[in-house]
Amino acid sequence: MDKFIKHTGSAVPLRRSNVDTDQIIPAVYLKRVTRSGFEDGLFAAWRTDPTFVLNDPVYKNATVLVAGVDFGTGSSREHAVWALQNYGFKTVISSRFADIFRGNSLKAGLLTVILGQSDVEAIWKVIEAEPATHISVDLESRSVSYNDVVLDFAIDDYTRWRLMEGLDDIGLTIKKGEFIDTFEKTRAAYKPATLPIRS
Amino acid sequence: MATTLAQKIWAEHVVHAASGEPDLLYIDLHLIHEVTSPQAFDGLRQTGRTVRRPDLTIATEDHNVPTLNIDKPIADPVSKLQVDTLRANCAEFGLRIHSLGDKDQGVVHVVGPQLGLTQPGMTIVCGDSHTSTHGAFGALAFGIGTSEVEHVLATQTLPLQRPKTMAINVEGSLKPGVTSKDIILAIIAKIGTGGGQGYVIEYRGSAIRALSMESRMTICNMSIEAGARAGLIAPDQTTFDYIKAKPHAPADFESALAYWKTLYTDSDARFDREVDLNADDLEPFVTWGTNPAQGASLNSNVPNPADIKDDEARGAAERALVYMGLEAGTPLKKIAIDTVFLGSCTNGRIEDLRAAAQVIKGKKIASTLRMLVVPGSARVRLEAEAEGLDKVFLDAGAEWRNAGCSMCLGMNPDQLSVGERAASTSNRNFEGRQGKGGRTHLVSPLVAAATALRGTLSSPADL
Fold it and tell me: Are A174 and B26 in contact (CB < 8 Å)?
């Protein structure tokens, strides 16, 4: 995973709440067996509408998505994160993310940033008035800045460290293998196993 | 210290805890399907890792498989590749798989419980958000993404932040014709799609205790629609009786039972949030909008967005009515339906098929609609056929299909077309969920059956 320390880019306003992962990428686009190529499916239904904000040429090179509350609800499909990344987004700002989507984003290196709804609305107004406005998301200082505005955001120390180092979560857990070995020795014998097969 | 059930199960599975780090949690059962696993297996190959516990892992084919002509090769080459990839991955890593045509193939959340692999006090994960279904057994069960699927395959653990706990107390008794689907739809309408965010929900109260295991699964299944990654119900005699005859019930049942009986929330434990719902007042509940919280009693009207005070909710309601092609003030019972879908991990179990068949028996579905009946698993299908339920549906003019997720998410050929309106026993009414441009009303199996007969949203009381 690439390290995430700071990202600066232009932003696109997505003034919708409850953007579920079926909207981010519909199920018919989930059939690939790779992690790439999902940008075609990103907001596929909405992108057929010429007035949809992602079709506005002024937001063509945006790398920051500023979304409404409850972004990423519904299905656990990590393809939603990949579709956003494959399209070119590096970070998503919202006042609330669904738990599974947020977990997936932080595993895959798409930084999800939680700001207050009034701050999100202030950013929407600025980037609608001046689409070229650059937004900086700084994980080191845990802040979002644009023009002369600086907004702090919260993220736990562990996730921040892992993203800034670009560390593989599985590698970190494997280092704790002895704890897993010990735990498994104490597991109750009556817990079910899938093998051997009983029917 | 007094603890809630979710906290107890969590504590029993902590492999490693350190301040400033997420807890490392042991996973007792990992369910796999074709859509969210291929990239995880690729990750294992790229890093030279293997599956730590094949004996705690099980795969089935459900999300994209056809429900017709399952004895023939899958017609869609992209779907076929995904299913073939799952089969090859399971062969390579030595994993148990139930493929199309196998009697234990089916929707992953129907398969686990019917095999008896879902038991109280377990941690259960799957790359599917409806894994919360298994919480009905008093297990801590939740959906994960593909990165986490790879993590569990490699280590049988997950690093996780400890969730908050919420109690939803449902007291009273349901009127005839009102089901657990109506309870959960009413709960979601009450707390919203983000209301459970960050929480594990425990469903409690006399109305929950009175439910069968299958009805409890319907409730826990839709916890994610209220934003909660997991929802659970303390195990009791209903739970123990359900597991006893299942293939993977514990050989040492008494030891397991002694442990299961310790699984409850201490009387003096405190939840971070409590919500109350009265079961006595509930009526059949349906959704009118494009998220599962946009629901109302079937006996009411399509709401008027102008009456909604909150700006965000009003805007969402306005948008939803445009998408759904509905006018404020229309009685919900006047809404004409094109397709009835009976199935899914929410309501595709034998009890659901029996309930719908009882309403439909000896009658014909309306000539203006089609009805798809898709059993949740091949076993459910066989059981239904042994009881003659297939004939009830076929005689009424419905289609009797093979098992899979089918029209719940429209990944296989079972889809709505643009503007087509469905009454669906599934879990999500998102825009385009059941097919691009399709319109979904979430309903119980009883409402689905009555709607199929009358052609408009209806409950059995309307017949």
Answer: no
The whole-angstrom distance between residue A10's C-alpha and the CA centroid of its chain comes to 17
Q: Which of B184, B426, B322 is nearest to A16 (CA)?
A: B322
- pTM value is 0.97
Q: Which residues, 6 or more positions from A44, have their beta carbon under 8 angstroms from its beta carbon?
A: A25, A26, A29
Task: Report the alpha-carbon distance of residue B115 to residue B248 in Å, rounded.
Answer: 6
Q: Which amino acid is at A159?
A: T
Burial letters B286-322, b for 16+ CB under 10 A, else e: bbbbbbbbbbbbbeebbbebeeeeeebbebbbebbbe
Q: Does B154 touch chain A (CB under 8 A)?
A: yes
Which B residues in the span 35-64 are in contact with A, Cβ-Cβ below 8 Å?
A: 35-36, 38-39, 42-43, 47, 49, 52, 54-58, 63-64
Set of chain A residues whose Cβ sits within 8 Å of the Cβ of B227: 70, 73, 98-99
Q: Where are the alpha helices (DSSP H) in B16-123?
A: 38-47, 77-93, 108-114
What are the C-alpha distances in Å from A54 to residues A12, A19, A40, A88?
7, 14, 13, 12
Rounded CA Rg of chain A = 19
pLDDT digits (tens, 9 = 90+) for B392-450: 999 999 999 999 999 999 999 999 999 999 999 999 999 999 999 999 999 999 999 99
Q: What percent of chain A has pLDDT over 90?
A: 98
State the angle between helix axes of B445-454 and B350-360 in degrees (0 to 180), rounded to the nearest 10.
30
B28 vs A17: CB contact, 8 Å cut-off? no
Q: Which token pair is A61?
A: 């090179």
Give me the phi and psi of B320, to 5 degrees please. Answer: -65, -40
Q: Give which of A42, A26, A30, A38 is closest to B82, Cα–Cα.
A: A30
Closest CA in chain B for residue A181: B15
Predicted confidence (pLDDT) per residue in B165-186, tens digit: 999 999 999 999 999 999 999 9
Min Cα separation A166/chain B (Å): 14
- Bridge partners for B201 per DSSP: B166, B231
